[in-house]
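Human: We require from you a standard protein entry with sequence in single-letter code and fold as tokens, and nothing else.

Assistant:
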Amino acid sequence: MKHIMIGICSFALFGLLLLTIYTIHGRSIRQAELDQALEDAMEQAVASTGETHLDGPQNDKELTALFLEKFASQIDSNSQVTVHILDADWQKGLLSAEAVVSFYHPTGKEGKVASRRTVIREARVQEEEKEYCCIDYIVNGSSYKTYHVQKGSKLMIPGAPQSAGKRFLGWRERDGEEIVVLAGRKIEKDCTYVAVFQ
């Protein structure tokens, strides 16, 4: 009887440890995704302001709307997101915002991550155009996540997708068969990754 109780307690502690690790990992992924999405969306919106971009935003509201559109396309859709515009000046190329993402941990407890950024357009005589790459993640034949990141920056990796009755194994390149390691990769071109389930 004593060995059975020790086994049950050990199993419960192991389960609690796994749940804690999964919770911490999920939170850190959401924080990284929020930081990157906020920074990229703000930089893209502010970069489209100024005299050389006549088709860009022409007032503060248009700058804010452009930023929100770019931000919404990059953030996880199963989270509640609150964005506060702290300052916006399209003429000066200034945008300051704070975003808070609310989500639920596997335990059912609500979690939040926040990020605050301020971006100011650099005044240059000949501003170098930044190149962006499109990273698309496909799950069950449909687009799961799409990121537009600056060429040469680190690859953004979304949270693990779910498919009914299947376990997520990782990502493979569109034309590849093998699961690839995405952590630490730098982006040099448009890429598409497909979810692999078992």
Observations:
- Strands lie at 80-89, 94-104, 110-120, 132-139, 142-150, 168-173, 179-180, 191-197.
- The helical segments are 2-47, 60-72.
- The chain has two domains: 1-123, 131-198.
